[in-house]
Specification:
By secondary structure, this protein is an alpha/beta fold. Helices cover about 40% and strands about 15% of the residues. Bound molecules: NADPH dihydro-nicotinamide-adenine-dinucleotide phosphate.
């Protein structure tokens, strides 16, 4: 195995430490304490785990965490009324509505009802537009975490060939915008892409955000390429039980790549760290203070 392992867990711990230091300064110099409100509708087990983990890490960096757990049959009007209250609450600097929402709720409508300045997930149409036009925005947490790891590992990304596999609004599309913003030559692949192996073989940077366990084998990877695995898939182990794997076949890709993120311990921890960083940024912007770098 030759690839360098990009340790997202350690990187995320450093990001959280920097956020905590900045929060302590905000508190000391300006009497501010950032607040993050997380709204969970229903009882999806994976979402419950994420929300618990977000709440715990929010408090650990010195912010206030406000959790709103609503019944699965909550009406759209009640959810919108809660978001309206949070939009107008000065103690709340960031609002995150945990996705997916139950089927009877219109996800686009709900997300677009969040004040864009408090939209720390970066999914509001205004933030999507700002990112797409290269303006200051709230950047979606998972792609932001991927970009930070890429910059940390590679330095300048300018001129590199990047292939993003997946075109979802939460990962693939914003990831492509960020890579374009860093002057990569970007290809977005998806389920209709022809000759996907050949497309991926051209890439200096491969970001896999597909949701298919171990789909990308090592022989699709250009030797020395940097591989960022966004996928989180639970598969059965031969001896019973389950384990988490990514969208790339880790062992065969690590044998060829220059660097690779593991699953777990790669992109996942960076996502929550970036959520906290975004909440800090939102707090600074709301108070006219200098933003963290
Ligand atoms: P979506 O299901 O929304 O999107 C998947 C994308 O993959 C689609 O664009 C789809 O193409 C494409 N795709 C599906 N099959 C193929 C194929 N055979 N070849 C090429 N492309 C294909 O998923 P998400 O973007 O929400 O998530 C992707 C993965 O990332 C999941 O495993 C998810 O769990 C994980 N994830 C991890 C996070 C983290 O914090 N680490 C955060 C968010 C997601 P098409 O559009 O044509 O259907």
């Amino acid at each position: 195995m030759s690839a360098q392992i990009i340790d997202g867990k350690a990187f995320a711990a450093r990001v959280r430490e920097q956020v905590a230091e900045h929060v302590a300064r905000l508190n000391r110099d300006h009497g501010l304490k950032p607040g993050l409100a997380v709204v969970l509708v229903g009882e999806d087990p994976a979402s419950q785990v994420y929300v618990r983990s977000k709440g715990k890490q929010t408090v650990e960096v010195g912010m206030n965490s406000y959790e709103h757990k609503l019944d699965a049959d909550t009406s759209e009007a009640d959810l919108l009324a809660l978001i309206d209250r949070l939009n107008n609450d000065p103690a709340v600097n960031g609002i995150l509505v945990q996705l997916p929402l139950p089927k009877h709720l219109n996800e686009d409508l709900v997300i677009n009802s969040i004040d864009p300045a408090k939209d720390v997930d970066g999914f509001h149409i205004s933030n999507v537009g700002l990112l797409g036009t290269g303006q200051k925005s709230m950047v979606p947490c998972t792609p932001l975490g991927c970009l930070m790891m890429l910059r940390d590992h590679l330095g300048s990304l300018s001129g590199l060939d990047a292939v993003v596999i997946g075109r979802s609004n939460i990962v693939g599309k914003p990831m492509s915008q960020l890579l374009l913003g860093d002057s990569c030559t970007v290809t977005i692949a998806h389920s209709r892409t022809k000759d996907l192996p050949d497309v991926v073989r051209r890439a200096d940077i491969v970001v896999a955000a597909v949701g298919r366990p171990q789909m990308v084998p090592g022989d699709w990877i250009k030797p020395g390429a940097t591989v960022i695995d966004v996928g989180i898939n639970r598969i059965d182990k031969p001896d019973g039980g389950t384990r988490l794997v990514g969208d790339v076949d880790y062992d065969s890709c690590a044998a060829v790549a220059g660097a690779i993120t593991p699953v777990p311990g790669g992109v996942g921890p960076m996502t929550i760290a970036c959520l906290l960083a975004n909440t800090l940024t939102a707090t600074c912007r709301a108070n006219g203070l200098e933003e963290p770098q």
